[in-house]
Specification:
single chain
């Protein structure tokens, strides 16, 4: 379901279209001196505004698809780290090596080492879904950090001779492939996020720029009709109920 704000932007354009229909019915009598409110200019503004709305809708879908793909890719993320760390602990590697890798794992999974425990004794971080944060910018930084630290985690295991698991999905080659997949889907999220921000900025400029935005142009056109026919005229009443609001 579209958000209230996104619906509000579209409603402004829908009302603007109705305003144009009403103005068109006035014929040659409608002859404003303001070039931005002549009928041809109003029609052009409607098309550019509608295009900007559609661009946001397209960018929103692309961003949603990218985030869904990323969430799917991250499903085995925590368990992969946990299993890899436990596989290392089960190997002949020394405690200091295990502790260094465990530190990276805890940084990724945001867990703390129990006090007074050694690396061999410390339980692995609990498996579960990647942390989701409500704020988009904070969430994105969290994913960026997890991807970067997972690269470190895999590289650390790759440089430990004792790390030789028999499980195919835990082998270094498989972990590197998974790391590359995570970076790819995360980069796609970054790209589509920036594209969505740009589309929204363009949409906001089309609709809400002072004097030249759709809302101000619509209000100017309504004011002209009011001055042309009078506040109590049937012509003005035809368009007076059309609302135009700046949506944030």
């Amino acid at each position: 379901m579209a958000s209230t704000s996104e619906t509000g932007h579209a409603k402004n354009v829908d009302n603007f279209s109705s305003l144009i229909d009403g103005i068109a019915s006035f014929g040659a009598t409608y002859n404003p001196s303001n070039p931005s409110t002549i009928l041809a200019a109003l029609k052009a503004k409607k098309e550019s505004a509608r295009t900007s709305i559609n661009a946001v809708n397209t960018a929103s879908i692309q961003y949603a698809n990218a985030t869904n793909k990323r969430e799917t890719a991250f499903v085995p993320f925590n368990s992969t780290i946990t299993r890899g760390l436990n596989s290392l602990r089960a190997s002949p590697s020394d405690d200091n090596t295990d502790a260094a890798v465990a530190t990276i794992a805890r940084k990724i999974l945001n867990t703390r080492a129990p006090k007074g425990s050694t690396s061999k004794e410390a339980p692995a971080p609990a498996a579960g879904p990647a942390v989701k944060v409500k704020k988009v910018s904070t969430s994105q930084r969290s994913y960026d950090s997890q991807v970067d630290n997972f690269d470190r985690f895999v590289e650390a295991l790759a440089n430990i001779p004792e790390y030789k698991p028999n499980e195919p999905e835990l082998k270094v080659e498989a972990l590197k492939a998974y790391a590359a997949e995570l970076r790819k889907v995360n980069d796609e999220c970054n790209t589509t996020s920036y594209a969505l921000d740009a589309a929204r900025a363009n949409r906001n400029a089309e609709l809400y720029t002072t004097s030249t935005g759709l809302v101000d142009v619509a209000l100017s056109a309504k004011a002209y009709v009011k001055s042309l026919f009078g506040a109590t005229s049937a012509e003005f009443k035809r368009i007076s109920s059309l609302e135009f609001r700046t949506v944030k």
